[in-house]
């Protein structure tokens, strides 16, 4: 049964898709292993932080057997509000690239670039700012696989490592699951 929702796929794998601040930065040839290692360490922290922020417990109904459930829910909502405010302050003090449509997974990414477009075959790093309240972007190193006349750029990433690949897969899966759940929710009248 078609529910009006398409699975987001890139390089035949589930992919994360959103409109986010994105930048492509050229890197000198050959790849610097120390630089890539530092990106991996920061990417791990960024993805773990996003995962922690995405964890939401059930908010529909407080557990009657837990006398503090309502208090915990209020604290959670206040913490989320605080994180949103810090994110806005951070974004105001550290300008980010313009948000564009982006789709990515551990294998590669596609984004809408502004002129001048990156060179076909050029190596660099795709920086994706996943959340306003997280200062560091996700940095994925790769090579430009194609550049469309409209600025649609396709990148093939070098393997980011098993742990980061798993976290990217979970990020894409959580977003897909939320979209499916949103489509299946009955509309209130």
Would you give an account of this structure?
The chain is an alpha+beta fold and 189 residues long. The chain has a single domain (9-55, 97-184), classed as predicted glycosyltransferase like domains (Thrombin, subunit H, Beta Barrel). The protein is built from 3 helices and 8 strands, in the order βββααβββββα. The strands form 2 sheets. A 6-stranded antiparallel beta barrel has the order 3-4-5-8-7-6. α1 packs parallel to α3. The protein is globular, with a radius of gyration of 19 Å. It starts with 8 loop residues before the first strand and ends in a 5-residue tail after the last helix. The model has no long low-confidence stretch (mean pLDDT 85).
Task: Give the topology, please.
Elements: E1 9-10, E2 13-14, E3 16-26, H1 33-54, H2 69-93, E4 99-104, E5 108-112, E6 123-128, E7 138-147, E8 152-157, H3 162-184
Antiparallel strand pairs: 1-2, 3-4, 3-6, 4-5, 5-8, 6-7, 7-8
Helix pairs in contact: 1-3
Features:
single chain, 189 residues, six-stranded antiparallel β-barrel
Unreliably modeled segments: none
Identify the CATH homologous superfamily.
predicted glycosyltransferase like domains
Mean pLDDT across every amino acid position: 85
- What is the fold named in CATH at topology level? Thrombin, subunit H
Cα distance, first to last residue? 24 Å
CATH architecture: Beta Barrel
User: Which value, in Å, is the CA radius of gyration?
Assistant: 19 Å
Query: What is the percent of helical residues?
Result: 25-40%
- Our count of helices gives 3
Strand line-up of the largest beta sheet = 3-4-5-8-7-6
Query: Can you identify the CATH class?
Result: Mainly Beta
Basic shape: globular
Can you summarize the main beta sheet? 6 strands, antiparallel, barrel
Roughly what fraction of the amino acids lie in strands?
A: 25-35%
